[in-house]
Amino acid sequence: MREKRYVMTNRLGKVLAALTDRHLGEETTGEAYAVKYLPNLNAQQDYDPGGMLLVGRTWVAGSENYRFGYQGSMKDDEIYGTGNSYTTHFRELDVRLMRWWSNDPKTSKTPWESPYATMGNNPVAFNDPLGDEIWVKKGLFKKLKYNEEDGKLYTRRGKEYTGDDVFSSKVLTNLNLLNSDPAGSIVVKAVSEDKHNYVYRNKSGPNSTGGSFHPFLFGKGGYINAALLSSTSVSTRSQLEFSSHELFHGYQRLKGNRRGKSLNSETEAYLFGAITTSRITAQIAGTGETYRTILHTTNYGDISNKGKDFNAAFHTLIFSETFDSKAFNTASNSLLNSIFSQPSYSGFNIDPNFKISIDTLYPLLNK
Questions:
Q1: Cα–Cα distance measured from residue 314 to residue 331, given in angstroms and rounded to the nearest whole number
Q2: Which of 11, 344, 346 is nearest to 204 (CA)?
Q3: What DSSP state is assigned to residue 301?
Q4: Pick the residue with more confidence: 130 or 17?
Q5: Which of 14, 81, 272, 324 is most buried by its number of CB atoms within 10 A?
Q6: Mean pLDDT across the stretch 270-281?
Q7: Which has more pLDDT, 269 or 233?
């Protein structure tokens, strides 16, 4: 039987070791029975952050050199020697210079950096795989990617997903609804075209009924825990508002808010979710502009003075033609006295360095 080969990688996909499923007997009894086995290691290697092999940290068993290495890409040893050049789907990488040989095919989406730069000039935090999709996690190991242009889900190999998984179907429905809104489509497009992954998971957030956004430790992207979308006891409107809210946290991350939890970020996400959801559900029902009436008559605060402050500020933000920073600050400071307040926000504070993301969407939010 042919040996199977396995690899050990780190979080950035760098191949650190290659081994097979054949075990080597090390210690034996007097009757030649093995009592201890070792893995059949074929190769092991380590890299500097840019991808060069480290001297003294590389070992290969004879001719068993494994073809893949830095960020899981295939080695192209014929050009500059072992481990100095890698070939990918689009272009060749020189790890000694930390530069690509040719332009990034999507360089128009990142005009702020050189088209030859690798890993955003931060190889400790990033790698450069083929990304630019929103992913939906299906089961333990499978992921599906969302294409905002045709509103469909696809497998890793590019085949259209036509299964009957309830969670995947709910995610797809909500993404398509949000993508049909003028402001919502900007958020969906920005997240789906980012080279970092945003993955929907059928898991609960900090409280059993809600969801949450968990940014990746380094860089952009993150997990969206969205078990709420699988619930049969939650209305379609609530599921859409939740989906808009959590995806907007991904948009905030994309726009530079990497500090994580804050009352500012939650206020902004609730504002985006409230407006887009009301407008989308009104369009589906054919009630047109009546969504503004619904928003106007909704009370977002409790009966306390701070709750009244939030309600007044939130209504100002909803109906302003331009972003009102004073109303936003008032709403953020009194969020814990609103109907949106949750136990999981108890440790949240105001972030003085928060970067507003929703202000540029206002012309579309008030269409």
A1: 6
A2: 344
A3: B
A4: 17
A5: 272
A6: 89
A7: 269
pLDDT of residue 70: 76
For the stretch 36-63, pLDDT in tens is 666 677 777 777 777 777 777 776 765 5
DSSP secondary structure, 155-187, as one string = -TTSPBP----HHHHHHHHHHHHHHTSHHHHHH
Residue 221 CA to residue 202 CA, distance in Å, equals 17
pLDDT band at 331, cuts 50/70/90?
very high
What's the rounded Cα separation, in Å, for the pair 314 and 121? Answer: 40
Phi then psi for 280, rounded to 5 degrees? -65, -45
Q: Is the pLDDT of residue 140 over 60?
A: no
Backbone angles phi, psi at 261, to 5 degrees: -70, 130
Length of the chain (residues): 367
Q: Which residues have C-beta within 8 Å of that of residue 335, sequence separation ≥ 6?
A: 263, 266, 267, 270, 310, 341, 345
Tokens 């409790």 correspond to 302
* Alpha carbon distance 318, 313 (integer Å): 9
Strand runs labelled E in 95-208: 99-100, 134-138, 142-147, 152-154, 198-201
Token pair recorded at residue 214? 């968990």
Cα–Cα distance measured from residue 240 to residue 280, given in angstroms and rounded to the nearest whole number = 9
- CA 319, 148, 216, 70 torsion: positive or negative? negative
Pair 136, 168: CB distance under 8 Å: yes
The tokens describing 120, both together, are 């955003």
Q: Are 201 and 137 in contact (CB under 8 A)?
A: yes
